[in-house]
Each structure stands twice: as C-alpha cells, then as structure tokens.
Amino acid sequence: MAVIKFEDRKKIILFVDDEPHFLDSMQRMLRKRGDEWSLHFAESVDEALELTWQYQFDVIVSDVNMPIKSGFDLLAALQENEITRNVPVIILTGNTEQNLKRKALEAGATDLLSKPVYYEDLVARIASVIRLKLYQDEIANQNIILENKVKIRTAELEFLHHDIIWRLAKAGEMRDEATGNHVVRVAHCSRIIAEKCHLPEEEVGWIFLTAPLHDLGKIGIPDGILLKAGKLTAAEWDIMKTHSEIGSSILLEPPKGLENSFYSASLEQNEMSGPVISPMREIAASIALNHHEKWDGGGYPNGLAGEDIPLAGRIVVIADVYDALRSARPYKKPLNREQAFEIILEGRGSHFDPNLVDVFQKCIDEFAAVFTKYW
Q1: What separation, in Å, do the N-terminal and C-terminal C-alpha atoms of the chain show?
Q2: Which of 5, 218, 241, 256 does the annotation list as catalytic?
Q3: Which of 111-120, 127-136, 253-262 has the lowest mean pLDDT?
Q4: Which of 32, 61, 145, 351 has the CB geometry, 3.0–4.6 Å to 347, for a possible disulfide?
Q5: CA torsion sign, 110 to 114 to 119 to 124?
Q6: Alpha carbons 16 and 231: distance in angstroms, whole number
Q7: Are 245 and 217 in contact, with CB atoms under 8 Å apart?
Q8: Is 40 helix (H, G, I), strand (E, B) or coil?
C-alpha cells in the first residue's frame, strides 16, 4: 500500500464569512483548484469551530468583521485549542487601518488579505501558508521523533541505573550468605512505610530503590568480623560500626584516578566542574550513613537524635531491624512475627521515631506479605 505524503494529499481549506454570496464566490473562484484543495465553508465562528472537530484544516481563511463573533474571536478560540493552535489563518478585511492589521497579527493570524479578493492574490497567499505549514509540520514531526528517542534513551539509562543499584546491593549481601533476600525485603518494607507517610511518589521510589544499599559498607568489613558466629569484642564492634561511613563514602566520593579518561572528557563536554550527585544517590548515601542512628541519640556513627536523623534513615532502620529480628544470623535464631513486632514497639521513642512506629503498626500485614513472597 502506497503511503500518501503530506505534500501529495489534498489540502483542506476552510473559508469563514457571514455573507453567503462571498462564500459562493470563493467556491466558484477556486473551483479549478479542486484537484489540489478540498474546500469547506462556514457562515459563523461557531460553525467554523464545529468543523475543526471534523477536519484537520491546513488553512483557514476568515473575515474579520462578522456579527456576534468576529475573526478575532475565532483566532482566540483556535489558539486555546492545542489541536488547532498551529493552523495558519489568513484574515480578510475591507478595513485599511493599520491598527486592525497589527491587532490581527498579534492575535495569531499568519497573513492578511484585503477585500475585494483577487484570484491571483488569494491563491498565492494560500499556497504560501500551506508551504509554511508543511515546514512547521516537518519540524514538529522531527521534534516528536527526537523526543521519543530521548524518552527511550532516558528509560534505558534509568533501567540501567536501577539495575546497577540492585546488583551492587546484592553484591554486598553476598558477603553474608545468611541474609538471603534481606535487602529485597528491606526495600519493600521501607517502601510500604514511606507510602503510608504520604511522601511524594518520586521520593518513595528513591527510598525503595536505595534502601537495599543500606549495608553496602559491609564490603569493607573483614570476614573474620562480619561472619563471626560469636559475640564481637569491643574492638571488633568498633570496626563493624564503620560500615555506615564506608557505605556513605562509596556512594558520595567522586571517582579518583580517572583523569584524561572518557569520564573526565564527558564532564568537560557537558561543561560540568565535577560529578553530579543525584537526589537518589544522596538518599542512598544518607540511608547508608544513618540507618543505625537512634531516636534518643544513642546510635552511630554520629549520635544524631530525633528529627536530626534524615527521614529516609529513620524509615529504613525500622524495616532493617524488623527483618534482622525475623531472620537467622550466625549469632542468633530468628524470632517469629509477634516477637519482632513487640521489640519494635518497645523501641518506640528510644530506638525508633515514635511517629514511624505508629505507622509501622498499620503495616504489619503488608510486611507479612513481603516475608511470604521473598523469604
């Protein structure tokens, strides 16, 4: 089946005038252009607007002085509608005042033509605006193609970004075989709490995607400490606690040793003085750093208290502790749902944000569904 190009199809033209004899004269005058142009006629602005719902006009030729609604009213209505906003309009007037012509152009008219209308002038003006519309449509189509390509590429990059985050989280988790799907469950439980807090959808998504990185810093903890079955010594515990800062550092520190590389060349090409830290990476680093802080200030690494602890960290600590209580570790047996639930409640106002614990109580069944699915 042959494809009919825009420039090959009949152009659809609408004439608007309150005088029927003028419209008849336009029809007779342009009859010989019937192979190229499909002509339509309206005796009022309202009738013209009705026709714009039925046809995709290439040009509208309208008188300016009409009863009830004028050509200016037509221009205003066309401008308000996204579908008709770019349809070129030729305004016809018998008025020779320059002020009126300027007003028509300012209102969105593409061209002006004075009455009486002569065949050669009319055909030339219509042909001119048709060419203009063709160019405009080609540019618009190219913009749509480019926008779609950008959307596809952005989606690909976003998927790759998310995929790397999850794989990085799983890589860290593999250091501790006993944790199983711990990072997956923490992500889902953190998302549930964030949603119940009515956070913006984008922020909920960031917390969900970055919560799995909360223990990323354990990559830097020696196996003898990380996998030790017995109780850690004070010195070992001090080393273990550094995983919060290690994780934050991994996520925030700019790459080093990449001078004169593709990385630095990309920065220069985009006129960037250094790496851009995205909101998602900031939340990831904040979670990694603060998920062991306690509401009463007794946590680590910085002994933050209350709302000085970033919200994402306060959310993830509840999900993390609850999952740790429910899970087996080299040094302990798992607790059941009720036991873990009670411990979280006991930590209200000391270990955990009291308001978030209240939210947590409403999520317990959803938490149970997460554990059933990802155990």
Answers
A1: 56
A2: 218
A3: 253-262
A4: 351
A5: negative
A6: 89
A7: yes
A8: strand
Strands (E), 4-45: 11-16, 37-42
Q: What are phi and psi of 352, to 5 degrees?
A: -120, 155
- Tell me how crowded residue 285 is: count the other CB atoms within 10 A of its CB: 23
pLDDT in tens, 262-281: 545 555 555 555 555 678 88
Q: List pLDDT tens digits, range 350-366.
A: 999 999 999 999 998 99
Is-catalytic flag, 218? yes
Identify whether the C-beta of residue 92 lies closer than 8 Å to the C-beta of residue 113: yes
Closest C-alpha to 59, from 151, 139, 123: 123
**Burial of 262 (C-beta count, 10 Å sphere; 0-12/13-18/19+):** exposed
Collapsing DSSP states into helix, strand and coil, what is residue 347? coil
Pair of tokens at residue 19: 């005088």
Cβ atoms of 350 and 306 within 8 Å: the answer is no
Q: How many CB atoms lie within 10 A of CB 294?
A: 20
Tell me whether strands 111-114 and 89-93 are parallel, antiparallel or unpaired.
parallel
Burial of 179 (0-12, 13-18, 19+ CB in 10 A): buried
User: Within a 10 A sphere around the Cβ of 306, how many other Cβ atoms?
Assistant: 14
Rounded to an integer, what distance in angstroms lies between the CA atom of residue 340 and that of residue 345?
9
Domains of the chain: 6-144 (3.40.50.2300), 174-374 (1.10.3210.10)
Span 203-247, pLDDT tens digits: 999 999 999 999 989 888 998 888 887 888 999 999 999 999 999
- Structure tokens that stand for 175 in this block: 């250091």
